[in-house]
Amino acid sequence: MKKTISIVMAVLMVVGCFAFAGCSSNGGAASGSGTIKIGMQGPYTGSTAVYGLAVQTGARLYVDQLNANGGINGKQVELIYYDNKGEDAEAINAFTRLVDEGITAFLGDVLTGNTLAVVPEAYAINMPMITASATAAAVTVNEDDGTVYTNVFRSCFIDPFQGEKMASYAAEKLGVKTAAVIALTGDAYSTGLAEAFVAKCAEVGIEVVAQEGYAAGDKDFNAQLTNIMAKNPDVVFCPNYYEDDGMIITQARALGLTARFLGGDGWGGVADYASAEDLEGSLYCSGYAPGSTDAVKAFEAAYEEKYGEPVPNMFAPLAYDAAMVLCAAIAKAEESGAEAGSDEYKQAIIDAIRTEGASVEGITSANGYSFDESNNPIKDANIMELVGGAETFKEIF
User: Fold this and answer.
1) pTM of the complete model
2) Are 39 and 101 in contact (CB under 8 A)?
């Protein structure tokens, strides 16, 4: 997404919904007993707003289309959303407010850390929950005892999947023999991908010659990159978010490091944060391949018509899919005759995410959304390559 687009969208969100005020969208229908309320939240302001706004607009597009076609069981779907500013405490407070407002299900959270903060709150009340973008394995499975959070699903990949995929791709497709890693220390997303990548490298015969970390807020990566450069790796796995990745690769090239860079889905939008020359040939794993199918093209056209801008990144289609799966499940739950918001109704939605998801032909999963025993979607990965400054679809792997 162009930086100017994210700034304009963020400003609009601030004007319409000050810092922590709630907003809603239900395709023009009035709120009331004839609506089904779905809660959302995310960073709509701040440095990670590019993710939150994309998730929000993707979900809104599907819900508005659904409402225009009669909604669910004659009821309009109302999205209620709050800006959590990317902060864990704000995320918990926002979720509490959404529950108090009578939401039937929760589509969120956006950032992995914020989602991990909210999951225990949702699990305690068995709130149906699907995230479009939180990738840590711990989002759906308790790391301490292995308990699956039976109410929590996602439409995106998990961190281990992405790390393993990129290691396998490096070995099988690129013939890589040595690799280095630079990841954000203490961040669930970055460390999750990094650990999985390193473990898979050991299996596929890639020697990891350097592992470097950095702290949140760091702007100077020359020390870490100098250490990596001394090891002369074939590739550098950089599983962070686009802004950091852009700075890292820019500084790497300035030092003379010529190794190919690899990343995860956090690279979406990186083209705006480093030069085309520095990014050329870099590869990352993504859940979305622009323009790859007729369904994708139709989605992209509808998005641009509604918002006046092209699809910003993969988080908008992932949110569109998450909304599609969730609404299909709610439609099934409506058939149960249970009272909306009741324990029976919430469980019916959770059950239906599994049964109905398989028949949902999404934008990022044309074969439907089937889920494994840990509530993660079973789907292929798209490999994206930076070519001439553009993030282009290379192949499915």
Assistant:
1) 0.78
2) yes
